[in-house]
From TrEMBL:
InterPro entries: Beta_helix, Pectin_lyas_fold, Pectin_lyase_fold/virulence
Keyword check for Metal-binding: no
Protein name: Right-handed parallel beta-helix repeat-containing protein
Superkingdom: Archaea
SUPFAM superfamilies: Pectin lyase-like
Length: 547
């Protein structure tokens, strides 16, 4: 996750309330125009102070009610032209029960703003853009040469040992368009009450420092929401930058100590060299709701936690990086995962659309669509590693064009294998059998396959299912492929009310001697079957029309 254990702070972390600028209490503010914050303040320039035009910011009523003090940062002396740094102004204005408002303009920061142990602070921008000073050298995420100095962050709002409570951060844009720009925009540790909305990162993060966001809700009963955080231009690999973190930045990092419930709503991440969204600890719950995640080169969304979920998300992999694994979704460590109403589209030989790892105890993939586009080199669709826990794949479609598995169920082929249930899954597409012959590869015992539709008309011996493990049950469903729809080497495989047919005129099933006590009941096998010496084979009430 590329996060050092300690960093050099910049800024005192304590507000200095003095004569610079002014603070407006809610009572005083409400005597003016409700909903609009207007000031005619003094603006520091490179020459001398000059009178500014009135800067008006529309504020939601709920924010007016929430904060005792509202500070217009320009009225407090900040330069909205991006010429003079605002670091001292931030230090002197940010305090508990205070909302700092950034009117439209451009604001320069040359050091990290750090505040810990706070309660109810806010930062609100209205078409406001933040930039950082020139960075010439970096070591261990600390700027060692340039206009910017210290830890490579804009805002560090709480730390793990001194988190804040009730943080609002809304509406600010960070400009990373010029070369050698991009540091962490916001790092926030709260016990409860995290609210981040409409934060946009423009341009590629290309300094080789920590990625634009880290969030942590440090208590189990705490909660937070991150809405419409957008970094569509991603980040450069460290090897192409002046920085030194491993591989490159992560887009949004959820701290491993985060213990509460965090929602990420309608966010957007482009390609990051590490993970896009990385939930790095399993102590809390994270819900990813809507949004688009593209091309990150470890995983676009890497999820951990208890009852964490991904709903209504679009994941796209269409820019491949040679020699680095790329996955759409990775379910890592936790229980009761849910991936629902989500689309994963992969063009080219990435690794997996969805990968479920050993420490995922229970997972459900429901109403999803997976498209594996590239006929020259496809990714795998859904893959379970050997010791992954129970997985249910329900009402999901997989379209596969390249010679790969649509579903790959790894396992140990013993009684301890957790069940994989596939129900109402549809697998289509013209994938050939060049390197991966079958659409579904079963190496895990105790599987159940209900009412599947598998249609694989691709050439070069393309098949529907190869069964290499014991005690798998196929109930209902239609299986059609160019070669044998079923290859069985597992014992106690049972087919009940299935229909299977070869487009190439082959038998519907080929049964090897390794698989004993196979039962076919109430089914239709076009062309019948080939029995290669399977002991205990039983066929009952099954039609075998010509192929």
């Amino acid at each position: 996750m590329n996060e050092p254990d300690s960093e050099t702070p910049s800024g005192s972390g304590e507000p200095r309330v003095g004569s610079v600028g002014s603070k407006v209490t809610r009572r005083t503010y409400l005597l003016g125009t409700v909903g609009a914050l207007g000031f005619s303040g003094y603006v520091a320039t490179s020459t001398e102070s000059a009178r500014a035009d009135t800067l008006t910011v529309e504020l939601p009523q709920e924010y007016l009610d929430r904060f005792d003090n509202i500070v217009n940062i320009v009225d407090a002396g900040a330069d909205p032209t991006g010429t003079e740094p605002i670091d001292d102004i931030l230090d002197s204005t940010v305090a508990d029960d205070t909302l700092v408002v950034f009117p439209e303009g451009r604001y320069l920061m040359n050091s990290q703003f750090r505040k810990t142990g706070y309660e109810n602070i806010g930062f609100y921008g209205d078409n406001a853009t933040l930039t950082h000073g020139q960075i010439d050298a970096i070591e261990n995420n600390v700027v060692t040469d340039g206009e910017f100095t210290g830890a490579a962050r804009f805002f560090r709002l709480g730390v793990i040992y001194a988190p804040g409570k009730d943080l609002l951060f809304e509406g600010l844009t960070f400009d990373f368009v010029p070369e050698q720009t991009g540091i962490r925009a916001i790092e926030a540790y709260v016990t409860d009450g995290l609210e981040v909305r409409d934060v946009t990162i423009v341009g590629e993060h290309d300094t080789g420092t920590l990625g634009p966001a880290l969030f942590s809700v440090t208590t189990a009963n705490g909660s937070g929401v991150v809405e419409r955080f957008k970094a569509p231009d991603g980040a450069a690999f460290t090897k192409d930058t002046i920085g030194d973190i491993n591989l490159g930045p992560t887009g949004i990092l959820i701290d491993p100590n985060s213990a509460g419930t965090l929602r990420l709503v309608d966010c957007e991440l482009g390609r990051f060299p590490d993970n896009g969204l990385y939930v790095s600890g399993a102590n809390g719950t994270v819900h990813v709701e809507g949004g688009t995640y593209k091309n990150s080169t470890v995983t676009s969304i890497r999820l951990k936690g208890y009852r964490s979920s991904i709903r209504g998300v679009d994941i796209i992999i269409d820019e491949l990086v040679s020699g680095i694994s790329q996955r759409g979704i990775r379910l890592d460590d936790g229980a009761d995962f849910l991936v629902e109403d989500t689309t994963v589209t992969v063009t080219g030989p990435a690794e997996n659309a969805i990968r479920v790892l050993d420490d995922a105890e229970t997972s459900t993939i429901k109403n999803c669509s997976i498209v594996l586009n590239d006929a020259k080199g496809s990714a795998r669709g859904i893959q379970l590693t050997e010791n992954a826990g129970r997985v249910e794949v329900l009402d999901t479609t997989i379209e596969v064009y390249g010679s790969e598995f649509a579903v790959y169920l790894q396992g140990n082929n013993d009684s301890q294998d957790s069940m994989a249930l596939l129900r109402n899954v549809t697998i289509t597409g013209p994938a050939p059998g060049d390197s991966a012959r079958e659409a579904i590869r079963v190496e895990r015992a105790n599987g159940r396959f209900e009412n599947l539709v598998v249609d694989q008309p691709g050439d070069n011996y393309r098949r529907c299912v190869e069964i290499l493990a014991d005690d798998n049950l196929f109930v209902g469903g239609t299986y059609q492929s160019t070669h044998h729809p079923f290859i069985n080497k597992g014992s106690r495989t049972r087919f009940d009310e299935v229909t299977a047919r070869s487009y190439g005129g082959w038998q519907a099933a080929k049964l090897y001697a390794e698989g004993t006590d196979v039962v076919v009941m109430d089914s239709t096998l076009y062309g019948g079957y080939i029995d290669k010496g399977a002991e205990g084979f039983v066929v009952d009430n099954t039609e075998m029309p010509p192929a």
